[in-house]
Amino acid sequence: MAAIAIVIVSHSKQLALGVRELAAQMVQGQVSIAVAAGIEDSENPLGTDPIQVYEAIASVFSDDGVLVLMDLGSALLSAEMAIEFLPEAQQQKVYLCEAPLVEGAIAAVVAAAAGGDIHQVMAEARGALLAKATQLGLVSSPLSAITPTTTNIESPTREIQLIVSNRLGLHARPAAQFVATAARFQSQILVRNLTRNTQLVRGDSINQVTTLGVRQGHELLITATGSDADEALAALQALFANNFGEDRVALNSPPAFQHEVTPTTHGELSGIAASPGVAIAPVVHYQPTHIIVTQHHVENVEAEWQRLQTAIHTAQQEIQAVFSQASLQIGDAEAAIFDAQLLFLEDPVLLEAAKERILANHINAEAVWQAVVDEVIASYHILEDSYLQERVDDVLDVGRRVLRLLAGNAPANLHLEQPAILVATDLTPSDTAGLDPTKVLGICTTSGSATSHSAIIARTLGIPAVLGVDAQVLHLADGTLMALDGESGRAWVEPESHILDLLSAKQSAWQAAQQEARATAHQPAITRDGKQISVFANIGSINDVQVAVASGAEGVGLLRTEFLYLDRTSAPTEEEQLAVYQAIAQVLDNRPLIIRTLDVGGDKPLPYLRVGFPEANPFLGWRGIRFCLDHLDLFKTQLRAILRASVGHQIKIMLPMIATVTEVRAAKLILGEVQAELNQAGIAFDAAIKVGIMIEVPSAVAIADQLAAEVDFFSIGTNDLSQYVMASDRTNPRVANLVDALHPAVLRMVQQTVQAAHTAGISVGLCGELAADTFATPILLGLGLDELSVNPQSIPGVKQAIARLSIVASEAIVASALQQDSATHVRELISTEIGGNRI
């Protein structure tokens, strides 16, 4: 934790909390930030309280200094008065700063995290507004108040040139990472934007880095002068290689605007290119139910508060179901936005405000809920970070869901009889995640942005989308023919024949390119020194397996069977499951199919299976194999269906969340009972079916040698293993940064598991998100994994990455990686090795 602390004083509590959240994200909790904002007056909450300011200062006081940032008027008076309450020795270490609240707070925390003293932190805060003015072109020169320092001319100077590839360039968070990294080294770091022909500026100054106006595609010159210049440049290069941690977002970035259909024609609409691809189909309008909220007086305030709590609880269950389904359809990385929605519904500040208004003012739940949601939306709108502003869509999504439940309305479901282009004012993330790409061929809306969560989901689903078109599109009759090009951001109503010909040709060319890529992906993944690695697919539906085979999957390393149990009022029957397992195995055409038994409970509840009590920590609760061993009817039904489907196919059984040998033996005993029952009934099955387990709990790693003696294969789930090893909830933004599968602690767990498996003569795969990260491929090869299982879309890229590597060089990288002390240093190592072409 940096020694210098920050206090934010504002008339508006919502504003101050928003600024603190934004500033905290810049430095991942390295700086103490306190808030003193608003007053305890429900009728007029705007104001400042000297005692509150005093308490905020005292709560974060540091002998290295406390910087107080204030908005207008009485905020300054309250801060001055608060200082008088402090002991005289402390008063000398509290500094009031006139810097702009939002920009100043960001600059101050980054400077503090970088180790600056109080005067350097104040200088950065004061220069923040000038940095923004430079970016907007209101001033032409960089900050002259902060100039490069002189260095020893005998010190070595090194330089590198790098291209910025993350989608929004060096916006707030990547700029903060750059500055924090530069500040770690003794060498002086200078940086220049070659694309914009700027002057050299200091790399340890957030304000000067901001003035460079770095965007995606810009080329930077970075110099380092000092004894650790090489190490500094390697660390900075690693940030660029990893897209500043935004690699997954960048993979789904909106396409560049292109003009391949050049003529402006009758019926043409221009919009935002949000998801590439061509769609030609009749339009269907989608209009979610609009709920009109009116305020009225209620007598029984306790009942009204309970009514709101019930609606929120039901909303949480619905969002959890959406999250589970989205994880299967679009992957855990993109589905994580629904984790954020769940956190919103658990926000104590929000809930306490709603409760207080209902109890104190006797206002109905709908009006109160709408008011608190509107206030949160307003607080996001004033923030200047575009990613935070995009969260407004998620707040609206959650807000509408709770209002719908309060009104007693059923969810709006879109059922299309024929494939169509969906026309709407806007789509929420929940709306988009529920779309069927085989029926919704395209999306055309009058609002939205290419960086919204809805657009990201559309790209992940492969649905072409054009957003922000003229509102006239809302007046089209259902069935009107439309064509849209999600790459150029244009749509055509009743397109003329030559436009249809051009778009059809573009569609055919795109499909041909995809087929060529798929053909390459059907080749085996063989390293440069001749080792073949199996590349399997993680799937969650019959549709997924077809995509997986087309993408070059050599089998299915993880069939998540939860999709069979969702969106229904009772568990699937044996016959229902049998039909699905057989259908998937048929598509695989004798390729391996690993079926994971039901992994629900705890954080993934099923509405028709009541836990009976809330769990304080569901990730450590009643889930996975623990749940199934306590629901033997459910478990045995699934095992019967899997065994019956195994005839004539390469089907294997995988048990989730194994923590003890006892659990494996208990599950195998039940499997034996089911096999005996099928034998007695004369029902065929593969008597030699293989049984494996998920390694995702640290205890399983510790006894991997004992577990290996019980099963036929291991599959490592790095998503859960990482959070259990690091004792950090990946859905908790305060600690989620600790959950990194490339941390040496996690990598050592993987190494121990692989060694135990190979000693016992069994194979070991990895099916977590790390497997799809081609940046990590050399680590996974070097650890000795036999198989990688990834989402179908990632298969071609993973195979290409494997073909560029050698096992010998990868093992050397792993030997060094296991000796590092952080995930950051592991990434720097990988970046250095890749950059040096040593693999």
Architecture overview:
By secondary structure, the protein is α/β, with parallel strands linked by helices. Helix content is 45%, strand content 15%. The chain contains 33 helices and 25 strands. Strands 9-16-15-11-12-13-14-10 form an eight-stranded mixed beta sheet. It has an eight-stranded parallel barrel with strand order 18-19-20-21-22-23-24-25, surrounded by six helices. α30 links the parallel β24 (763-766) and β25 (787-790). The protein is globular and about 90 Å long. Residues 138-153, 247-264 and 383-388 have low confidence and may be disordered.
Provide keyphrases for this structure.
839 residues; eight-stranded mixed beta sheet; globular; 33 helices; eight-stranded parallel beta barrel; alpha/beta
Low-confidence parts: 138-153, 247-264, 383-388
Structural class: alpha/beta
Q: Main β-sheet, in a few words?
A: 8 strands, mixed
Shape: globular
| Fraction of helical residues | 40-55%
SS element count, helices:
33
| Lateral strand order in the biggest sheet | 9-16-15-11-12-13-14-10
What is the count of β-strands?
Answer: 25
Q: Strand fraction band?
A: 15-25%
Tell me the distance between the termini.
37 Å
Radius of gyration: 29 Å
Task: Output mean pLDDT.
Answer: 83
